[in-house]
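Predicting holo structure, heme C bound.
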Amino acid sequence: MSRYSEALLLCALLAGSAAAAEDRFQGIGRTATPDEVRALDIDVRADFLGLPVGSASVAEGKQIFAAKCAACHGAAGESDAMFTPLIGGTSAQDVKAGRVQALSAGPTRVRSLFMKTATLSSVFDYIQRAMPWTEPKSLQPDEVYGVLAYLLHLAQIVPADFVLTQANMADVQALLPNRHGMTNDHGLWPGAPASQGGMGNGGTPDVQVEACMRDCADEVRLCPPVPPPMRQAQGNPAEQNRAFGAVRGTPLGAN
Ligand code: HEC
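Done. C-alpha cells:
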C-alpha cells in the first residue's frame, strides 16, 4: 500500500469509518471513486513500490524533452535560466566512485540535479508529479521514462542506445554519481557552536534514532477526542454562527 493510500486509510479510521463519515456529513461531498484515488496515488517509493510499468529509449526521450522540457531547462538540461541546471558538474569518474568530486572540492556555484540526487525513484516521482512546471501530471509513464533516460544519458550514466524500463531502474540507481554522497551522520548545522561564536553544533548529528518495531499497536489512532472540559469551553460553536444575508455585489438568487 502506498503512503497515499495509507493516509486515506488513516483518514477513514480517524472518522470512525467512511460510512460513519457519510452519515455525519449528509449531503456534503461523496466518496472518491477508485479512478479518482488512482489518479492521485502516484507516489514512487525509494524501494520503487508504486513505479508504473513503462519504457522508453534515450532517443525517444530526447524528442519528448525537446518538446516539453527544453524551453525551461535547455536542450541538454544545462540551462540555469529557470532553475539550477539538471545536467553538469559530474564526470564518468564520479559514476564509478558514487561520490561527486566537485562537491568535496570546495564551494560550487550551482548544484545540478545529478550532483545531488542519490535516488532515481525520487527523480521519477518528481518529474511525474511536478513537471512540466506549467502542466504537472500530464506526462504518460512512457514519457517520464523517456525524459529520464535522456537525462541519464546526458549525465554520462547510460549509453546512447539505452532503454529505461521499470525493470532496470534499480540497476541504474546503483550508478548515480552521488549515490554514496548522502549521509545522516552529520549535524544540520556544521561549524563552531554558539559558545565559540558560531551558529553550529560542530557537526554532531542532531538526532540518532533506532526505530523500535516491537510490541506495536494493532491499530493506530492519532485522534484522541477533545477532553470533556474543553468541549464547550467557548460555548456551543453551532449557536455562534449567524446568517449574514445577501452578499454585496451578488444579486440575490444569482447562485
Ligand atoms: C515552464 C518551465 C518548465 C518546464 C517546461 C519544465 N520545467 Fe522542470 N523545473 C522548472 C522549475 C521552475 C523547477 C524548480 C521548481 C521548484 O523548485 O519548485 C524545475 C525543476 C525540475 C527538476 C528538479 C531539479 C532539481 O535539481 O531539483 C527536474 C528533474 C525537472 N524540472 C525536470 C523537468 C522535465 C523532465 C521537464 C519536461 C517534461 C520539465 N522539467 C519541464 C521549470 C520547468
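Residues 1-18 have pLDDT under 50 and may be disordered.
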